[in-house]
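From the pipeline queue, job 12 of 40. The input is one protein chain; the requested action is below.

Action: predict structure.
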Amino acid sequence: MNSRTNMTESHSKSRKQAEIAFGNAQSQFLARSRTVEEIDPTVRAREEKTLRLREAREAKELQDRLTAATALAAKRKNKI
């Protein structure tokens, strides 16, 4: 019986260590998941802002090209 009790105690000790290790790993995983969830809205907001800025820049570039083309056409028309 003594060896059986000793075996149960060692099993119990190693099981406790394994459960603690698993709990630590699970805690780290959940902490990373929460961090990713917190970052996702920030990343999404940044991407949306970048898209809005890109669209605004492209619209301004198009307007600038149209203005330049109109000015060039008017200048040519005045020379004739």
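Job complete. The radius of gyration is 34 Å.
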